[in-house]
């Protein structure tokens, strides 16, 4: 298997008629973690979308090696289905079984329709889906949003284990995210 890698080369991002940032470069290899920080609206989510290939950079290029898993505010789980069945849809596609229900505090919620889940519960469900995906490169947009202290620690620990096993984590958040060895990119320094 090819080793995971994701890199930004002199990226610039435009949303609508506004240039948000320019000159963003970094390279992450197996085991690396980077947190993108900056005020609301600076372009953290937009940068993650560029890295995921969901939007095109205004300038520069993205280099990707290895499967990408993106967690953002949309969990891509059928709101009408009970959580277990909504996750089973993805595990059928990913060919995986979910084993982190307990760590993520989801075992009590498996019969609850996704539409009834709270913001934090939905975020935990999205993390469970990500784990089943077995993607090498994790792109986490505000992964701690809505999580209680216990769930936040669980997500930090799962991310640390992912990196220790040779995965990559790119985290966009204005909240502190505890992960040993993680470096920081201050996006406002690249504001256009
Ligand atoms: N489709 C769009 N068209 C035009 N402007 C957009 C579009 N989507 C987002 N923007 C603008 O781009 C800017 C950056 O948005 P983005 O969501 O990337 O910021 P962010 O740093 O992640 O913010 P937050 O911390 O609030 O999540 C914002 O000013 C937003 O209004």
From TrEMBL:
<keyword id="KW-1278">Translocase</keyword>
<dbReference type="InterPro" id="IPR003439">
    <property type="entry name" value="ABC_transporter-like_ATP-bd"/>
</dbReference>
<dbReference type="InterPro" id="IPR003593">
    <property type="entry name" value="AAA+_ATPase"/>
</dbReference>
<keyword id="KW-0813">Transport</keyword>
<dbReference type="GO" id="GO:0005524">
    <property type="term" value="F:ATP binding"/>
</dbReference>
<keyword id="KW-0067">ATP-binding</keyword>
<keyword id="KW-0472">Membrane</keyword>
<dbReference type="InterPro" id="IPR005895">
    <property type="entry name" value="ABC_transptr_haem_export_CcmA"/>
</dbReference>
<feature type="domain" description="ABC transporter">
    <location>
        <begin position="6"/>
        <end position="189"/>
    </location>
</feature>
<keyword id="KW-0201">Cytochrome c-type biogenesis</keyword>
<protein>
    <submittedName>
        <fullName>Heme ABC exporter ATP-binding protein CcmA</fullName>
    </submittedName>
</protein>
<dbReference type="InterPro" id="IPR027417">
    <property type="entry name" value="P-loop_NTPase"/>
</dbReference>
<dbReference type="Pfam" id="PF00005">
    <property type="entry name" value="ABC_tran"/>
</dbReference>
<keyword id="KW-0547">Nucleotide-binding</keyword>
